[in-house]
């Protein structure tokens, strides 16, 4: 499925629609401003105002704060908070397109982000949201995103990234995307990969990134029936390194994103201690089925992890609804400033 990540106000701002700020948005802005006045910062108020809000409300708060005080909200919070707590507040108080544009910028400037995170941000996007992200990146960096990534990346991973960035996903049309077409495309995918000596990367990647989610599911069923393994396993056999991780993520998150979403939460809370930065990175994203509701998949069960690793030390406040992360199995981003 295609996940709509950006709140409605981000779409409205991009298309030039005038934004309306309800009274509670102005109240929240005043509370934040007041919490940062005087000696010391009222962190409890910041938690209360920002921690329980939806992505749409937080986006409006960030936009309104800048309008009223001529300063980005994230800049205020950077001067008033520190550590993992400060990073969390800055991320959830920055408009999501800007957050992602900054992550992409850092990923091409040696700021500690794994290259694989690039595909986590770019894949699964509607065409409209891809355009929002490209415009935001240009406004932030002053460079075209495609030109930058093409010059900075290499190998099959570059082919994956450029295909995702430049190939608009075809809208699903039942009259076109039928069983016969699914068999045709599944066969073409096999012939570009497992059915030949050497992989035709451009054809293989192009088929995957252009297929609408409903159609990719149909293709996967055909592929299993004809070739005794699914498309994700075919990717694993034909690619390696970041290209394999990225394409595998594209397939998994397109066909059924929830296991990938759950996997990220689990990985941040496994082992010794909690990956607080990983959890912080998860919070800016839109709401999807929370733990214990339909959609949270096995093997993780119906309850969040318990014990010493959850919640994080210091007690991040739980959001009103769990927020889903940039999903996938890659290391968490640590460069947001």
Task: Characterise the protein shown here.
The protein is an all-alpha fold and 337 residues long. The chain has a domain of 87 residues: Annexin V, domain 1, CATH 1.10.220.10. Helix content is 58%, strand content 0%. The chain contains 18 helices and no strands. Helix 2 runs antiparallel to helix 3 and helix 6 runs parallel beside helix 18. The longest helix is centred in the N-terminal third of the chain and has 15 residues. It starts with 7 loop residues before the first helix and ends in a 55-residue tail after the last helix. It comes from Phytophthora fragariae. GO terms for molecular function: calcium ion binding; calcium-dependent phospholipid binding; phosphatidylserine binding. Belongs to the annexin family.
